[in-house]
Amino acid sequence: MGEIEKEVELKMKLEESVKSFKFRAPQENFTIQDFDMGKIYGVGSYSKVVRAKKKDTGKVYALKIMDKKFITKENKTAYVKLERIVLDQLTHPGIVQLHFTFQDTFSLYMALESCEGGELFDQITRKGRLPEDEARFYAAEVIDALEYIHNMGLIHRDIKPENLLLTSDGHIKIADFGSVKPMQDSRITVLPNAASDDKACTFVGTAAYVPPEVLNSSPATIGNDLWALGCTLFQMLSGTSPFKDASEWLIFQRIIARDVRFPDYFSDHAKDLIDKLLDIDPAKRPGAGRDGYDSLKNHPFFKGINWRDIRSKSPPRLVLEKGHTASRSSGGDDTPDSSWNPAHIGDGTGTGNSGSDVSSSSDAGNITKLASIDSFDSKWQQFLEPGESILMISMVKKLQKLSSKKVQLILTNKPKLIYVDPSKLAGKGTMIWSDDPNDLSIQVTSPSNFKIVLPKKVMTFEDPKQRAYQWKKAIETLQNR
Ligand SMILES: Nc1ncnc2c1ncn2[C@@H]1O[C@H](COP(=O)(O)OP(=O)(O)OP(=O)(O)O)[C@@H](O)[C@H]1O
């Protein structure tokens, strides 16, 4: 058979497999008018998730809305398809369920099971840190769902407290399968065109939870999720992730050096488990070895957990947002969020990736999220040379005697320190880099204010996100690299 015939035959086979594939969660003909829109649950890098009540049935969903133009422009189509097809085939009480999908001219919609209890991340932030019993409860529910995911031949690749959602009564549901990777022997059917490899990406996931082997470009394994589980457990018990720093680049240095320090108040069992999950060798992490999940479940930290009936235990009490009187469990919230503008749907602006001032829920989260969103935000690429990448970026105010101007301050790995007019997208200045603190230094005058001292001038900045110390640390670390 000639090359052309072979290609045609292959194409026909693929088309056949697409035709014969039947989604469990149906592709409906609904429109957005069929729903009463409530509050915005959150904004992802290419989606917006909104609480939506179906008018005829009264059923509530978390509607994940994705702008088609943005997804195509950012080459995310394959990831969206993969998330859809993977979620369609997963059924587990610890995983957010996909009910149906629909689309209109501008947007794709995924109707997900609504998790009214919010993110585990917010529980950690509101409580400061979690008592060990609560952390054990959540970790056990995550492990139960993760074992199922791994048994299905999938690697989630973005396990972190922001992607662990809570039901109204406080049970865990793993969400966000946008980075999922099917293993070779996966039991999941993956249609052609869904992302089955990620050559185009440097890494997926979130900086603070990325294991060292991923930074060294090793292939993905279930060990990646077990490392992230270790980071998540550390964060539950301490309030912050183990590898915290001012920029992605600094976080990566810590991860590669496996620079973990356990607070004194961690129990010996907690320390031992996290230490093992954060093993440099992914195959040695409990859960990744020959005995499967047994070594993880039988770890003394989980003594007393009944793995066969994990979801029957009462969950920890949820702490609500300040000012929230009604419990989320008493029927949720149908009041539209003040920031919710229905015109956002499908108009190409609803993706939340418009600049650096994307709000996120914590300091550490902020840095990671800002850095990852901004450094992938193509609009700053024009200020970089090939191979140059952004280490830290902030929308700051450049203060002058009588006025102030908003600028985007950008630090790159070159190293290069520049500031850009964000509205005109025009370079406004470059601070000549020097490793010598006599020629380039940074003085912090308050958590939001800092001065960059150059041989012939001093420039004063205000960072509304209070990252003055992080700017200092990033610049000084680069000078001492
Ligand atoms: N089923 C759900 N129920 C309630 N809230 C949800 C649900 N799914 C997502 N959310 C909220 O919406 C936010 C955005 O979700 P989404 O999956 O689009 O993005 P993300 O997890 O931030 O992803 P990305 O890593 O792509 O930026 C989440 O952080 C979460 O708080």
From TrEMBL:
Superkingdom to which the source organism belongs: Eukaryota
Location in or out of the cell: Cytoplasm; Membrane
A Pfam family per the record: PH_3
PROSITE patterns: PROTEIN_KINASE_DOM (PS50011), PROTEIN_KINASE_ST (PS00108)
Predominant place of localization: cytoplasm
Compositionally skewed regions (Polar residues) per UniProt: 326-341
Region (Disordered): 322-363
Keyword terms of this UniProt record: ATP-binding, Cytoplasm, Kinase, Membrane, Nucleotide-binding, Phosphoprotein, Serine/threonine-protein kinase, Transferase
Gene Ontology terms describing biological process: intracellular signal transduction
Catalytic activity, EC: 2.7.11.1
Enzyme class: transferase
Catalyzed chemical reaction(s): L-seryl-[protein] + ATP = O-phospho-L-seryl-[protein] + ADP + H(+); L-threonyl-[protein] + ATP = O-phospho-L-threonyl-[protein] + ADP + H(+)
Single Gene Ontology MF annotation: ATP binding
Topology within the bilayer: Peripheral membrane protein
Biased composition annotated in UniProt, kind: Low complexity: 354-363
InterPro entries recorded: Kinase-like_dom_sf (IPR011009), PDK1-typ_PH (IPR033931), PDPK1 (IPR039046), PH-like_dom_sf (IPR011993), Prot_kinase_dom (IPR000719), Ser/Thr_kinase_AS (IPR008271), Ser_Thr_kinase_AGC (IPR050236)
SUPFAM superfamilies in UniProt: PH domain-like, Protein kinase-like (PK-like)
GO cellular component: cytoplasm; membrane
Homology family: Belongs to the protein kinase superfamily. AGC Ser/Thr protein kinase family. PDPK1 subfamily.
Name this protein carries in UniProt: non-specific serine/threonine protein kinase
